[in-house]
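Study this:
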Amino acid sequence: MKKVFCLLPFLALGGCVTDDTSASSRPSKDELICIDSGFVPGTIEFSQCLATAKIARKTAEDLEKERKKEQEKRDTISASLANEICVEFARKRMPYPVIRNQTVHNISGGYRQTIRVSFELDEPGTSYSSRSAQCIIRGREVVDFKIT
């Protein structure tokens, strides 16, 4: 019984040990920038550095969002041009020669457009053959294509 009471204080202290690698004890990116720049944590200069780093990071994020928005606005094309791009892209990938375009449907517009097209094909051994395709266009680029 005495042995148990002797070990009890050590067991209680074992629960007080913390792991210094937890996320809350790791410095943030802004703190690392300030430390790497020679500022000492806990000083007014360090706090000022953190504030400046936060503003710079936020400004860079805002500029990147604005750049993407402007690029989408600049690269957004008309539905008719998107249809032309899809028809040309799909014609080249049809398994047989295309006799004529049957339909072109612009399903959704904007920067990312979905277009469905169908073609009448000259498939040997059949009186009539058709295939449909779907293009997803981002800007002027076909980013996904399926023949159905």
About this structure: The beta strands are 98-108, 112-121, 129-138, 141-147. Residues 79-147 form one domain. Confidence is low (pLDDT under 50) at residues 1-20. Residues 44-75 form the longest helix (32 residues).
